[in-house]
Amino acid sequence: STSYPFFGEHQSGIVTPAQDRLHFAAFDMSGSATRDDLIELLKDWTVAAAAMTAGKDIGDFGAVSGPYDAPPEDTGEALGLPASGLTITFGFGPTLFQTTEGADRFGLAARRPAELVNLPHFPGDRLNPATSDGDLCIQACADDPQVAVHAIRNLSRIAFGRASLRWSQLGFGRTSSTSTSQTTPRNLFGFKDGTANIKAEEPTAVNDQVWVQSGDGAGWLAGGSYLVARRIRMGIEPWDRTILSEQEAVIGRNKGEGAPLSGGTEFTEPDFALSGRENIPLIAENAHVRLAHPTQNAGIRMLRRGYNFVDGNDELGRLNAGLFFISFQRSPHQFTEVQLNLARHDALNEYITHVGSALFAVPPGATRGSYVGATLF
Ligand code: HEM
């Protein structure tokens, strides 16, 4: 079974080949928590994350070797399961740096990167505050859902009294590839997703577009990134009543192979200038891939790492389903620029609604013997 190191220059779970399953959680620090509590929590989380990503249970005695008269240190549901490619990625939300009623919550106000502020309101947003934002986030990805859930469960348990779960999201199928070694998966509209994504094998693009550089502003964040999460509800039923040619026109690629409508195969670059009959462009002006493409956005790219979700159904018998969009970028501005373009013009908007949103600064990787986020303090 695959295992990825927890310690390193960058946190795992970003350029790591996207695993099949996700459990994402956002936390709020408790009202009484101090700066020392926050630091202790990050230290405790680091020790536990290092153990779990290595396929071990947490604590000195784990799930079943501890004293009979105490609750086990590890909750136990991953006993006997391998690491399953587990990665655990931590992030800091804007509110962690906030000053409330004149008090600097954790003495971090002066350390807030200028760009770490809530994303702007986009046209069409219908955000639920209860499933948005948060002081801290943890992204757990694994190839086994039980392993991802075990990680979030144990990290939440460790946080008890210091931080509590604000919202969380399960994802059951990756909607991107982040390595050329992976095949392109499909999203719930049935289209290949991740074709033009930034891949780990493109070091220049990863450096220019994903990792915060030392001259970018907040020095403590160098080697880190910004994580944007958007819970996007997809109108499965209207989409399924839409004719194939319209579905393809909305995306700008064909459904079978994922090739651009301007021709070629999956990895052929789209040609937005190419027109067919009556000078109508082969890739429509409002097609998703045109509006999201770097040539329409001043060269901007991002590393997408989202997941499909189905959370049962609503009271009208419609699937409560969609894409839990996650992207990593060197600056939140990259997401904002592209999303503004999409929110205004994308043909896809008839079928999707953004219902949750969050932005986190993802610190660089932890060094062995230290803890995640240490550069901040
Ligand atoms: C490309 C679907 C939301 C950014 C694509 C592709 C599909 C797709 C099928 C083409 C294959 C590929 O290159 O990956 C969707 C669906 C969405 C959604 C179903 C919502 C439910 C978003 C959002 C953003 C975004 C919110 C960012 C603001 C991109 C980018 C590309 C892309 C940057 C690559 C464009 C290129 O370079 O050719 N998307 N997408 N997408 N999407 Fe989305």
UniProtKB/TrEMBL annotation:
Keywords from the UniProt entry: Heme, Iron, Lyase, Metal-binding, Oxidoreductase, Peroxidase, Signal
Catalytic reaction list: heme b + 2 H(+) = protoporphyrin IX + Fe(2+)
Coiled-coil region: none
Subcellular location: Cell envelope
Dyp-type peroxidase N-terminal domain span: 11-172
A GO biological process held by the record: iron import into cell
GO cellular component: cell envelope; cytosol
Its EC number(s): 1.11.1.-
Cofactor(s) needed: heme b
Predominant cellular place of this UniProt entry's protein: other
Keyword Repressor: no
Any GO MF annotation of the entry: ferrochelatase activity
Domain Dyp-type peroxidase C-terminal: from-to ranges: 184-366
Pfam families: Dyp_perox_C (PF20628), Dyp_perox_N (PF04261)
Cofactor binding remark: Binds 1 heme b (iron(II)-protoporphyrin IX) group non-covalently per subunit.
Sequence similarity: Belongs to the DyP-type peroxidase family.
Role according to the record: Involved in the recovery of exogenous heme iron. Extracts iron from heme while preserving the protoporphyrin ring intact.
Record protein name field: Deferrochelatase
Organism: Glaciibacter psychrotolerans
